[in-house]
Design goal:
Helix 1 packs across helix 5 and helix 2 crosses helix 3. The chain is globular and about 40 Å long. By secondary structure, the chain is an alpha/beta fold. The chain has one domain: Rossmann fold. About 45% of the residues are buried. Helices cover about 35% and strands about 25% of the residues. The protein has a 9-stranded mixed sheet, with helices on both faces. The protein has a two-stranded parallel ribbon with strand order 7-9. Helix 4 links the parallel strand 5 and strand 6. This is NAD dependent epimerase/dehydratase family protein.
C-alpha cells in the first residue's frame, strides 16, 4: 500500500514509518521537519503541515495517490486547537474529498468519553474529542481510532489488552505494532479501540475483535 504518516518526526510517527516500510509498504513520511532521516529506501520524506487550509491539503493528498492515512501528529500541548483538533479535522476532511479509503487516528485514553477524564490532560482530551468525533460523525472513511493510555519508552512486549478497565501504560513500540497490525484488519473498521500493555499477543487481541 501507499501510506501517508502525518506526524512522522514524533516518537510514534518515526517508528511507525520504519515498521510500515519494513512490512513492504511505500511510506510517505509527512512532517514539517525535513531534516528527519529514515533507514528504509521505501520511505519518502514530504513536507506536510496541517496548519495550511483544507483545499491545499486535498490537493497534496491527491498528488500523493494514497491508499491510507495515519494521523499521529501532536503539538505537545503547544497548539492544541490548530494541530491536535482542527489540524486533524482538516486532514480527515481532505482524505474524504481525496477518496482515500483508510484513515487511522492515534488518539488518547477515552478521548470520546469525557466522564472518564481527569483534570491533568483535560484540554488535550477536549482537542482529541473534537477530532475523534468529527471522524466518526462527518466522514465515510473506513476509520479506526486507537486510544492508548500514557506512552512509555519501555521495550515492546508484543502483548496488549483492548478495552482495559483503567488508563494503564503503553509501550510506544506496542502502540506502533498495533497501528501496523490494524491497517488491513477489516474487523477494526469503524471502531474506537482503547488499549494498554497486557497479557495477550497483538495478533490475538486484534483477531478477537468483532
Amino acid at each position: 500500500m501507499r501510506i501517508l504518516v502525518v506526524g512522522a518526526s514524533g516518537r510514534v510517527g518515526h517508528l511507525l514509518v520504519e515498521k510500515l516500510a519494513a512490512e513492504g509498504h511505500e511510506v510517505i513520511a509527512g512532517t514539517r521537519h525535513l531534516d528527519e532521516t529514515f533507514t528504509s529506501k521505501r520511505v519518502v520524506l514530504a513536507k506536510l503541515d496541517v496548519l495550511i487550509d483544507e483545499e491545499q491539503l486535498v490537493n497534496e493528498l491527491l498528488d500523493l495517490k494514497l491508499d491510507a492515512v495515519y494521523f499521529v501528529a501532536g503539538s505537545k500541548g503547544k497548539n492544541l486547537l490548530q494541530v491536535d483538533a482542527f489540524g486533524a479535522v482538516k486532514l480527515e476532511n481532505a482524505a474524504e474529498k481525496a477518496g482515500i479509503d483508510r484513515f487511522i487516528m492515534l488518539s488518547s485514553w477515552q478521548a470520546t468519553n469525557p466522564k472518564a477524564w481527569g483534570e491533568e490532560l483535560r484540554d488535550y482530551n477536549i482537542a482529541k474529542f473534537f477530532a475523534d468525533n468529527w471522524l466518526i460523525d462527518h466522514t465515510t472513511r473506513n476509520y479506526t481510532i486507537l486510544q492508548p493510555g500514557a506512552l512509555t519508552e519501555t521495550p515492546g512486549s508484543g502483548k496488549i489488552a483492548f478495552d482495559p478497565d483503567s488508563p494503564a501504560q503503553n509501550s510506544i513500540e506496542n502502540v506502533v505494532d498495533v497501528l501496523v497490525g490494524i491497517l488491513n484488519a477489516k474487523n477494526t473498521y469503524g471502531k474506537v479501540l482503547s488499549m494498554s500493555d497486557g497479557e495477550n499477543t497483538i495478533e490475538t487481541e486484534i483477531a478477537k475483535l468483532v
